[in-house]
Please model this.
Amino acid sequence: MKFVVLLTDGMSDHKIEALGGKTVMQYAKKPNMDKLLTEGVGGFIKTTPEGYYPGSDICNLSVMGYDPTIYYSGRSPLEAGSQGIELGKSDMAFRCNLVTLDGEIMDDFSAHHIDAKVAQACIKELDSIFRPEGIEFYPGVGYRNLMVMRNVDFDMKTTPPHDIMGQGWKKYLPTGRGSEKLLDIMQRAKSVFDGGKYARANSIWFWGEGRKPDMPLFKELYGLNGSVVAAVDLIRGIGRFGGLDVIDVPGATGFIDTNFEGKAEYALKTLEKNDYVFIHVEAPDEAGHMGSVEEKVKAVENIDSRMLPILMEGLKKFGEFRILITPDHPTPVLKRTHVAEPVPAIIYGTGVKPDGNTTYDEFMKPTFFIENGYRIADYFLKSAVING
Ligand SMILES: [Zn+2]
Model:
């Protein structure tokens, strides 16, 4: 049997007055998803464990079948994994943002969306200064960069710069074991920004630290060879650490203008070799963060009209298959950020008996409720019959 997870990042939402009191999922035209639900089952997954932040890293780990309370070890190691940066057991990765400080105020967490080329030159200069001391800087995209230190025994608390916009930054500097080393690097790094050499960036900011996650291979857990189709570093990193093939799709941007058709086509292609594919689509989440109802409706409609027909047609030739469609977390457009609420999911395919639901939304009559979100993988992959 072939298994497809279609992860629609941030798709679920709340009721919105501008949509006549409907949610985005209720308002959007999505005949293909509704048809799959009509012939399949609906339910909910609690993807964020109690006490955790509903980050895409945490929530995607859950949907992929990894218990985040055991396997989540920070955001940066996942990004490092995606970039192919090798991490040993005692190495630590840090997110290194290029930021704009205005005196004692955190003016902008992205150095006002610093240009990618400018950022790259800056990180290169930092690397040339610090690498002789064993401090490695790696350029990412724009303000999102990484720093790695080898053989360190740090244990510290850091703060994401996007959480303290417009606030005094001094009280949010790293604290704890090893923090004085980071403070020293930040201090010494300041000179490279002299004279406005790197646009509006005037400091680096470390956060999101972690060690390499000690994740078992997906194949060990679920007995399947698989692939990940994703443009976003975090998700690609999870795939890499889980031993899944990480697929590049031309034109896949991780934004609202992504190559929807290409993702579906490449996913089908990987199923000729592997039995599981995890397709991640970032567009609804981006629209949610933008606070744009219109873009979010469009994102849902694009997934429905531009991906599902290709997937469903292409899956036919494999005979037995199942598909799980689910967001990782809601990104309500009126909140413009993630919330820790269970997400609506549908399962369709071999061995799945219809449960009477016909409209895929946040108010379906649930046939399943997965309290420990990561157990969705067992339910989806291993139940011989669903709703039998
Ligand atoms: Zn997400």
About this structure: The mean pLDDT is 95.
